[in-house]
Amino acid sequence: DTGVSQDPRHKITKRGQNVTFRCDPISEHNRLYWYRQTLGQGPEFLTYFQNEAQLEKSRLLSDRFSAERPKGSFSTLEIQRTEQGDSAMYLCASSLSQGSGELFFGEGSRLTVL
Amino acid sequence: GEDVEQSLFLSVREGDSSVINCTYTDSSSTYLYWYKQEPGAGLQLLTYIFSNMDMKQDQRLTVLLNKKDKHLSLRIADTQTGDSAIYFCAESSTAGNKLTFGGGTRVLVKP
Question: Is the peptide bond prior to A8 cis by the omega test (within 30 degrees of 0)?
Fold first, then answer.
């Protein structure tokens, strides 16, 4: 399977702990996106990369959140000092920078902060 | 900023047509997309339309775009129980840039 994969699929943590999510995009895709989705809402944009460069960050991305894509392939999203409000599904997507701009989504990493 | 609005819920009988509506505010929207999300699954692209088009048909799916009113619709012909899902409208001002999603319309298909 050459789709977008995310790990872990589920994470339960206590408030104040740090968590890290990993995303492996489709191999030939140069753009990678992170979104957050809470229950009953549409996905909200967090940040995106073109190759290893982080091109845009949403205001939603507080200083407790950091994303990296060090070699322009996989990406990590780290949340430090988690809060209950961080509980959500974190979605990763990838795309080519040309063509229709179709985003291919992974199945997401669900975070529950107790 | 960009805003995308959708109705929350649609109930339809199996075999009937479904129409899901979406409005957006960004006049520079160039690409408009419809995604489907089934329970526990990621988002799947159904179809997209460029802003210079009025209509696009793809098998049972028909997308209509009224650029003047910033209104997008998705019609599903001969709706099946497998079409029960949440449908998201999304817009982008440039291909490959971030998408702004609506809140989703939950479609329930009754036998």
Answer: yes
Task: Quick: pLDDT tens for B64-106.
Answer: 999 999 999 999 999 999 999 999 999 987 655 788 999 999 9
* Interface residues from chain A to B (CB-CB < 8 Å): 4, 31, 33, 40-45, 48, 56, 91, 93, 95-108
Q: Which of A2, B51, A54, A111 is nearest to A45 (CA)?
A: A54
DSSP-assigned beta bridge partners for residue B71: B23, B66
Distance from CA of residue B34 to its chain's centroid? 4
A13-50: pLDDT as tens digits: 999 999 999 999 999 899 999 999 998 899 999 999 99
From the CA of B65, how many Å to the nearest CA of chain A? 17
